[in-house]
Task: inverse folding
């Protein structure tokens, strides 16, 4: 070490007694502003919601202790129960269908090597992800409206007898909302999986073919395992949007007709801000949050177990 | 190996799905441009283009104040979240200290925490300190959740920077602040831009928080204006189409310019939205 460098090192040790680096407090100083804001405006409300869920409160008069009463009501109240059932139906549309479509395409693309001009398609396929959900909801409300574009298409192909006010139909309104979810999510899944499939080494496919694997075996033996990480990301993203969906439902149907498209997030909003049932709304919100955390944890856990 | 039919087939499939993604948006654009007086709620191809619908929607929907509010809320959220996330990610990514893993897991919770879960106490607590019906009532909760993502994102970036770079600077006697500002930040620019783009999109598109917090029409954000516009003029198809375009245009423009950043962010598992 040269004289100069040595002096340098000495000097730095003197000014920073805790080698390597600085006083022990320094990391906390960097973290503090972010942590403070996050704790006050995200973590604390999360805890406060859980606390409120144990009270009967109308938002105005003093609250009274309810114990687990609000949670028992969730289990027995058919309206809340059906709201959760609806969000599981939406999972099929937001998550299962787009992921299956994406996987199918990934299977096809794995046999064709690299795709040129993919970035142009990517731009278009991602577009629904970018547009504000409120704008999409307004658009699709019009498309599924009475005599709207969807009915026009049905009439044009001779299925006019099926045309109806889709969002006013007790059994079909929920699938109609779900279709919008599928439409928003399939591009995301496709882009994720096609990008993932191009990273799988060609040698794995060659080996599978030497072993006499057909397209189906090849998909399950090579493509699907190779896409594990992308699959986890896609499933977590789409599952969470399905479970928490609010904007789309609020603007398209407000939960109607009747309660046929009611979802937990909408129950949280109407109970807390329209009916003044704050405690019960907080219990729904807390249940929803726990459900989302559990699902995200499980999917990530299942996804990482296979790789190690 | 790769047959020509398979290649062509791939493009056919991609084109079909791209058209399916574009069709509703294209139909909306054409509807926004058709003569306002043309009746009927279905789709008709406009034989002449009427940009005046945008002017009408702009006025009836009060979108100038809506866009201004959205710009203020989004700008402030992005600025605050970025400023706080960089140092926090730096600490978690390059330093070891007591409680670092616990603190990191705390931030992870915020990655998947939906506003749906916190909106009730947020409203009642902020009302007590008179922050509802103010920009801060939206900015602070938005920034708080964005900080969770930003810290996670910047930590991943700082973890990926070569340790030798930091160590060499330390031996030269640089303070941690100096290492961050003059050595690491120049490299961090693409990562920071991606984080800002994602925060911008999420904040701009947010609806629930504004719906609950902002009842004063003068400060309501653009998506909220659109929802209210739809509530009042349900059958004004051209107006609603034009309004949707107005609300979507700023994000779509940013997306088209910086799409690489956006797609990279989402593909790497930025769970939120």
Result:
């Amino acid at each position: 070490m040269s004289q100069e460098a040595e002096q340098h090192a000495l000097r730095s040790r003197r000014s920073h007694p805790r080698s390597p680096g600085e006083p022990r407090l320094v990391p906390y100083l960097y973290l503090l502003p972010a942590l403070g804001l996050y704790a006050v405006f995200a973590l604390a409300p999360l805890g406060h919601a859980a606390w409120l869920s144990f009270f009967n409160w109308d938002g105005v008069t003093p609250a009274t202790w309810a114990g687990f009463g609000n949670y028992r009501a969730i289990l027995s109240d058919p309206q809340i129960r059906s709201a959760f059932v609806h969000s599981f139906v939406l999972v099929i549309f937001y998550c299962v269908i787009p992921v299956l479509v994406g996987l199918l395409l990934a299977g096809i693309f794995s046999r064709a090597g690299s795709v040129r001009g993919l970035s142009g398609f990517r731009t278009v396929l991602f577009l629904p992800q970018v547009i504000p959900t409120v704008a999409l909801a307004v658009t699709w409300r019009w498309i599924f409206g009475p005599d709207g574009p969807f009915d026009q298409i049905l009439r044009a192909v001779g299925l006019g007898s099926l045309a109806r006010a889709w969002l006013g139909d007790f059994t079909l309104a929920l699938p109609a909302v779900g279709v919008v979810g599928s439409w928003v999510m399939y591009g995301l899944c496709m882009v994720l999986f096609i990008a993932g499939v191009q990273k799988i080494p060609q040698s794995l496919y060659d080996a599978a073919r030497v072993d006499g694997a057909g397209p189906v075996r090849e998909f399950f033996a090579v493509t699907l395992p190779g896409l594990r990480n992308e699959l986890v990301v896609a499933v977590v993203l789409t599952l969470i949007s399905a479970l928490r969906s609010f904007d789309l439902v609020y603007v398209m149907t407000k939960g109607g007709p009747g309660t046929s498209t009611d979802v937990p997030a909408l129950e949280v909003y109407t109970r807390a801000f329209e009916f003044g049932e704050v405690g019960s709304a907080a219990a729904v919100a807390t249940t929803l949050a726990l459900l989302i955390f559990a699902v995200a944890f499980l999917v990530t856990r299942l996804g990482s177990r296979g790789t190690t | 190996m790769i047959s020509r039919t398979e290649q062509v087939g791939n493009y056919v499939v991609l084109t079909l799905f791209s058209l399916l993604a574009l069709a509703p948006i294209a139909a909306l654009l054409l509807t926004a441009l058709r003569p306002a007086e043309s009746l009927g709620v279905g789709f008709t191809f406009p034989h002449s283009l009427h940009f005046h619908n945008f002017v009408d929607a702009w006025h009836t929907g009060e979108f100038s104040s809506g866009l201004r509010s959205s710009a203020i809320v989004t700008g402030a959220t992005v600025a605050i979240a970025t400023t706080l996330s960089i140092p926090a990610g730096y600490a978690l990514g390059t330093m070891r200290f007591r409680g670092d893993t616990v603190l990191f897991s705390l931030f992870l919770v915020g990655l998947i925490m939906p506003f749906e879960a916190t909106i009730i106490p947020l409203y009642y607590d902020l009302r007590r300190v008179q922050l509802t019906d103010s920009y801060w009532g939206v900015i602070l909760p938005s920034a708080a959740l964005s900080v969770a993502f930003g810290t996670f994102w910047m930590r991943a970036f700082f973890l990926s920077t070569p340790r030798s770079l930091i160590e060499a600077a330390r031996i030269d006697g640089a303070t941690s602040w100096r290492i961050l500002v003059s050595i690491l930040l120049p490299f961090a620019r693409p990562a920071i831009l991606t984080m800002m783009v994602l925060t911008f999109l999420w904040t701009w598109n947010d609806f629930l928080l504004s719906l609950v917090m902002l009842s004063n029409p003068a400060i309501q954000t653009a998506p909220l204006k659109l929802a209210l516009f739809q509530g009042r003029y349900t059958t004004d198809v051209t107006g609603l189409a034009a309004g949707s375009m107005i609300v979507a245009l700023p994000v779509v423009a940013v997306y088209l310019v910086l799409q690489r950043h956006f797609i990279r962010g989402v593909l790497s598992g930025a769970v939120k939205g």
